[in-house]
């Protein structure tokens, strides 16, 4: 390791075990704060994983080499006319184990202000050192989409297996750069598998914590990597925020109109995209079996049923069978069923910012 690399980061000693329990190497998740984090989805994803899963430090980066403290001033706590604490800007890589005991790596903390090239080369060196098979960088962007439709997570990658049925961009796009994107570029040049996942957050909710974006980012990572994450606490937050949004939307006819317009636009864009990409799936559709899978399962059911009938026939040769007792049709129909009122369609423009949201402790999932 060269001198500038020694100043860039320190390795934990003794080094924790990082090896993956699968045939390939571990997955590296990159969740840097400060860029493309609408709904605080990227920061919340890292915080949730660190709080809900066991972890150990692997490498700690030197903040004095990477952080401009004047542009990112840490919060200081003063108690009884004395300074008692200061916010820690921890930028580093930790090894975690998912709910099935599989190891993976997480790079989290503030996006560096300085020395991006040296930083990204150091991250790539560490990825090679620990045999990382796939690297997934997380992003979250404000988009003109309604919160009443499934949240889209789009993907870009040099490895088709990491994208699979996710939504992708077909056109050429020019974006402001970031340290995470530079990590992608360096790893791609080294021939490593890398992908970026971006949650599409309703633009009117971009400044507030939006648990649905956090949930969908982590769910997308889990499906691409084969890891298993505890997401129950986030799902509770999603239900709570959805209720708050519904209340605020129902109080404003103007907001309802704006959301309805966004819904029409979303549905039209989705129809056009799926005409070109029929295999693309939204949230909640990945567990729905395909037509071929349903057909195969039905054939297995019929085969098993035929086998059972043959076994019963061989045991029951010639004997009279008693007919099953018939049921009175009136007993089949329960009375006084009360239909639930369909949920009012939620809406939202600039006035819908759920305030004072109290996030549940993700450690409850452990």
From TrEMBL:
Residues 308-366 are annotated as: Disordered. It comes from the Bacteria. Residues 325-366 have a biased composition (Acidic residues). This is PAC2 family protein. It comes from Corynebacterium comes.
């Amino acid at each position: 390791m060269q001198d500038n690399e020694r100043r860039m980061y320190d390795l934990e000693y003794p080094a924790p075990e990082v090896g993956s329990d699968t045939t390939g190497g571990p997955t590296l998740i990159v969740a840097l704060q400060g860029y493309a984090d609408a709904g605080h989805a990227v920061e919340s994803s890292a915080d949730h994983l660190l709080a809900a899963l066991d972890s150990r430090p692997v490498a700690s980066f030197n903040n004095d080499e990477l952080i401009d403290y004047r542009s990112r001033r840490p919060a200081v706590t003063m108690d009884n006319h004395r300074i008692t604490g200061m916010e820690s800007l921890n930028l580093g890589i930790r090894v975690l184990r998912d709910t099935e005991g599989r190891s993976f790596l997480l790079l989290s903390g503030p996006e560096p202000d300085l020395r991006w090239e040296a930083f990204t080369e150091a991250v790539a060196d560490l990825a090679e050192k620990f045999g990382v098979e796939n690297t997934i960088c997380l992003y979250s962007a404000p988009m003109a989409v309604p919160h009443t439709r499934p949240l889209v997570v789009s993907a870009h990658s040099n490895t088709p297996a990491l994208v699979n049925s996710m939504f992708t961009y077909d056109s050429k796009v020019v974006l402001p750069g970031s340290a995470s994107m530079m990590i992608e570029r360096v790893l791609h040049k080294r021939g490593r598998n890398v992908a970026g996942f971006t949650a599409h957050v309703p633009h009117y909710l971009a400044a507030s914590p939006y648990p649905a974006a956090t949930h969908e980012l982590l769910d997308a990572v889990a499906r691409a990597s084969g890891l298993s994450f505890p997401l129950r606490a986030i799902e509770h937050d999603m239900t709570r925020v959805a209720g708050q949004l519904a209340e605020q939307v129902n109080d404003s006819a103007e907001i309802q109109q704006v959301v309805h317009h966004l819904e029409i636009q979303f549905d039209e864009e989705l129809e056009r995209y799926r005409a070109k990409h029929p295999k693309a799936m939204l949230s909640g559709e990945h567990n729905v079996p395909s037509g071929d899978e349903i057909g195969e399962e039905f054939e297995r059911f019929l085969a098993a049923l035929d086998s059972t009938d043959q076994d019963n026939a061989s045991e029951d040769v010639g004997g009279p069978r008693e007919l099953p007792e018939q049921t009175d049709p009136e007993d089949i129909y329960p009375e006084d069923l009360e239909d639930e009122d369909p949920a009012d369609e939620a809406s939202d423009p600039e006035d819908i910012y759920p305030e004072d949201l109290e996030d549940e402790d993700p450690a409850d999932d452990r």
